[in-house]
Structure formats: structure tokens, C-alpha cells
Amino acid sequence: MQNPSGDARHTEQIEAHGLNAVRLKACGSEALVYLHGAHVASFRTREHGELLWLSDQAVYGAGKAIRGGIPICFPWFGAHPTEPSFPAHGFARTSEFRFEGSEERGDNVHCELSLSSSPETLALFPHAWKARLRLSVGRALSVAFEVENVGDAAFDYEVALHSYLGVSDVRQIELGGLAGARYDDKVTGARGDLQPEAPLRFASETDRVYDSTARVTVGDPTRNCRLIVDKTASRTTVVWNPWVDKAKRLSDFPDDAWATMVCVEAANASPHGIRLPPQSRHTTTTIISAETL
After folding, report:
1. Active-site residue flag, 162
2. Which domains does the chain have, with CATH numbers?
3. CA-to-CA distance for 176 and 198, rounded, in angstroms?
4. pTM over cut 0.70
5. Is residue 2 packed enough to be buried (19+ CB in 10 Å), middle (13-18) or exposed (0-12)?
6. DSSP class per residue in 174-238
7. What is the pLDDT of the chain when averaged over all its residues?
8. 21: which of 59, 102, 190, 262 is 20 to 30 A away, CA to CA?
9. Active-site residue among 17, 162, 174, 197?
């Protein structure tokens, strides 16, 4: 990577909402990533506009997770399995990453942010590791989260790239690509249900963890757009929408904003967490793009 000062043609270091951030531009597209949580908050393309959803009531500050965009859930997904007092979805999304630099490669701009284990993280997750978030911005947005075990013992972790996608009306969209996949339903408590062949549509609160490696498409006829979520080295896909009642219980979520978003997350979550041997690495990647219907 180039010097962290970047190249003003495609990279700009800025302050937004009191936090340090990097704006990346390439191929008519633009992305904004905060160093706080290595949190991608925006991805816009020339043809389709903003593809991500960000809460108008998001909180920006130390120790707070930003609602919307692409938070990183690491090193566990959801509540900690044994310590309910530990932060939900781990600590990466509220940690300060380091900007390592950016460079142009062909039509895209690439940048890298890094984070390492520290005395604070060791109190919650007693393992030595290094993490890197690698972004590629162009006609598509690629978000790759690499974890390296720099210790002398294997460890287990979970990860999710918690992508909030913007839609015109969640009641009018349909998700393709999950037909035949087994899923656990966190709303009903059912486990191992089978997704029917018909596309997934939304009529109530949805929180499902699919056993799937497949591409997911989000057809949005009102917007005349199909969002595409590809992924690599991810065995879990999480689909979430809070619907009416839960949205009202979330202080950083406008009451009626549930209708304009859906989460489609590339993840490796139980029972598909990652076992990482010493001196090895694993990278989970999601790639978000759009096409006209």
C-alpha cells in the first residue's frame, strides 16, 4: 500500500461526525469508511446511487457501534456464548483501526485498515491475533476481513460482515439464492427449517441464519434495481429486518426506517465458526454490486 497519506485523486482522509474517516473514489463510485470499527458507512455508484442503509439516528462515539452500513462482528456473533456481560457481536465494531494506505489498481481503488490484539481485547478474547480489512471500490464494493493467528495455540472465532442494504420498501422486494438452504429462525426459535424454492419475501420481523455459500440477489422493482451480494469463504448468510415493534425498541433506529432496509450478511457463525491454527489466516469477503432490472 502507498503511504497512509493516500493519493488525493482517489483517497481523502476526513473527519465526519467527530470521527476519522477515509473517502474512496473510483469508476464513478464512492465509499466512506470510518476508522472507528473499520465501518463502511456508504457505497454509492454512478448508476444506482446509494446501495447501503445508514440510520439517521446512528450514534458516533467511542465505545458505540454505528447503526447501518457494514459493521464487523468479531470475534463472536450475537451474544457471547458464556459471558452475557460482554459486548454483543464482539469488540471489532467499536475498536479504532489504523489506516495503512491506499492505491489504484486498474479501475479500482484499494485500501487497508488494521487492528491487533491488545491488553483490552485479551480480557475478552484471550488470543493473539492481527486483523486487516481490505476494501476495493469500483463498480462493486469488496470488503475482505482477514484474521491471522499470531499465537502458538489454535483458537475459534465467529465473524459477520453485517451489511445493511438500502431498499425502496422491504415489503415489495424479494431475495433469491437461498432456495433449499437450511436455516435457524431466531424469531420463532425453529432450527433447521428448509427455505422453499420461491424467493424470500418479507411480511414480519425476520432474523434467520442460513447454512449457505450462495450468491443472494435482492430484487427491488420500485427502484428498478437488483442488489447482488456475493461472498467467499463464508458458510453462513444472515438475513435480518426488525419490522415495526423491534425498530421502536432500538434507540438508534427511526421508528419507520425498517421499511427501507434489509440485512444480508456474509458470515461464519455457529456451527460454522472458524478454527484458526497457529500462524495461519482466514479471510471472509463480501462483494456488493447492483444491476438494472
Report:
1. yes
2. 11-292 (2.70.98.10)
3. 8
4. yes
5. middle
6. EEES-TT-EEEETTT---SEE--SSPB--SS-EEEEEE--S-EEEEETTTTEEEEEEEES--EEE
7. 96
8. 262
9. 162
